[in-house]
Amino acid sequence: AQKIRSLDNAAEGIVNPRLRAELFASKRVYRPGEPILLTTLVRNISTETLIVNNRLDVGDAALPGDLREVFFSVKAPSGAQLAMRVDQNATYAPPDDFVTVTAGNFVSRVADLAALFPMTAQGVYEVCATYENALVGPMEYDTGRNRMAVRNVGAQVARNETPCINVEVKAFGAETVGLVEANQARWYLRNTAGLQTVFFFGNPGDVPLAGDWNGDGTTTVGMFRPSDGFFYARNSNSQGVADFACFAGNPDDVPIAGDWDGDGVDTLGLYRPVNQTFFLFNKVCNNTPMGAAALAFVFGDAGDEPFAGDFDDDGRTEVALHRASTGLVYYRNTPTTGVADASFIWGNPSDRVLAGDWVADGRSTVGLFRRAEARFFLRNSNTAGPADIAFPMGVAAWLPVAGAWGLG
Prior knowledge:
There is one protein chain. The strands form nine sheets. Strands 2, 7, 8, 11, 12 and 13 form a six-stranded mixed sheet that branches. Strands 16-15-14-33 form a four-stranded antiparallel sheet, with no helix packed on it. A hairpin with a 3-residue loop joins strand 4 and strand 5. It is mainly β. The longest helix has 4 residues.
């Protein structure tokens, strides 16, 4: 069959309803210059007939379901349409052409979008893909028998499009730490220059946590109130009343926050020590009860202390645990029950462990607040070893938090 290398040469109006394509990004937000890995997944869902121009039918037996070529088009943040790039078998590992997709099965291809297009401007890019399905043909309409005839003298190509997706290119600032004087509800947030911003939020006895609650790239304050099971948060790092509140959890639950589904917004999570169960919510707190958690799974042992971070740089937050008795830190890269994907020793028994992106490379690594010394120790990799950064701050009884505070 003749190879067809351009959309301009595809047979107009021909689609293959048996095949469905989906486009997936490896994560939602990427840093400038970072590979943007996109997977095109093509499924053969049934043995439907091919409809040509809404009037011509071709029986399934004559139509191999194969993936021929994949093409991308991208709309830049400015609205400009970037030039269409054609896959010439360089992007994908061979074999690329005529990969059979039998009924009920699928094939997938991964491409680095940043290698195909100039992704230099920061902002949201709309990415669309078109895949071509090679058909034995060409197809001719037999008026005498009122049916389509397929003759093995060349090739026709069915063109099918995937739903478009958005990916964002964005520069990130390094995260840093803060402390909360819980018995006074006073916050001390440190910027990257070491200066502190101080303000009150919450009530004495509230448990502090922090997250990017509105997806603007800035981590802001939150409080979980064990006395009534309410969560309170602000969208700015300043004194004032909560911007939103909602009911979730039990008094003994330990609150955490993270972007569990990779949509760019942090939401509430709870760890229930009595049965070592995590409850992760993907919906934004909107002044109503949170209801059932989107994800619930058992992980850890009794007595372990939870924290969270994006340890594998996939754009989603993972849960982790610190075993104070031994200094063991361990975490999973998926929100499911199972053994740890990574573990190492970090800190002393009385330390409070947390995680943050200390060097703005997209990956959360461990830190700790050593209460005996009122001192932070931060490490730039998730491995055992000495701290890469250390500095004094606060007093022993205060509780540590981490985030990109937007304070310079």
